[in-house]
Amino acid sequence: MRTCLNWSGGKDAALALSSLLDEDRYEVVRLLTTVSAEYNRSTTHGVRPELHDEQAAALGLPLQTVELPEGVTDKQYAERMRTVHRELAEADIDAVAFGDVFLDDVREYREGRLATVPVGGVWPLWGRDTTELVEELFDRGFEATVVCVDDDALDESFVGRPFDRAFVDDLPPDVDPAGEYGEFHTFVTDSPMFDRPVAVSRGERVTRLSPEGTFHYCDLVPCG
């Protein structure tokens, strides 16, 4: 099954890719990411697009970047992604894969969007225990940095930290260890799938207010 992976650059996307590569029935042929034209950063995670390019190069996979206009509405987003998914189908891609784990409303939204185009959906991590997922990431040698935290769940001291066991141990008890409710997001700098690490340095921290809430970001700057 020729598959395109919805790519955030974070730990869930990377582990989803690893899971897909472990199964003979999937051939991952493309990564797909979205970028905000307003900030020139990836949506949600707030990462520089060139760092996603570095990840894709380290993986040896092509990356398709979809630019979303400033102030994009839900309707505009849905129409833009419908066009992209139809283009994937025209490129003989059978399915789009996602790193979602257990949020039913998110999956239902994605399934509803894909129902209007000739590509299916794949959820390689669906239903897994997030504590086990995190331990698998650590055991297999994935390395990541926390690039965004939701102020409703975590204060700004958590952003910019390595995503490691010390970080997880410091999380409040009501925060999911993998941040599956959106409490935090990460950027993977190395994994067993990369042929080289993505070298970054930590830049400035920025706090942004949006209709969804207050979020703290750590800018990762390419090195070398």
Describe this structure in words.
It is a single chain. The protein has 224 residues and is α/β, with parallel strands linked by helices. The chain folds into two domains: 2-122, Rossmann fold, CATH 3.40.50.620; 132-222, putative n-type atp pyrophosphatase, domain 2 (Alpha-Beta Complex). 29% of the residues lie in helices and 29% in strands. Strands 1, 2, 3, 4, 5 and 6 form a six-stranded mixed β-sheet that branches. Strands 8-7-10-9 form a four-stranded antiparallel β-sheet, covered by helices on one side. Strand 2 (27-36) and strand 3 (41-42) form a beta hairpin. The longest helix has 17 residues, at 74-90. The N and C termini lie far apart (37 Å).
Q: In one word, what is the shape?
A: globular
Specify the CATH class of the largest domain: Alpha Beta
Number of domains: 2
Would you give the CATH topology of the largest domain?
A: Rossmann fold
Number of helices: 6
Average pLDDT metric: 96
CATH superfamily name of the largest domain?
HUPs
Helix fraction bin: 25-40%
What structural class results from the helix and strand content?
Answer: alpha/beta
Q: Radius of gyration, Cα only, in angstroms?
A: 17 Å
The poorly predicted ranges are: none
Count of extended strands: 10
**Order of helical and strand elements:** EHEEHEHEHEHEHEEE
How much strand? 25-35%
| Largest sheet entry | 6 strands, mixed
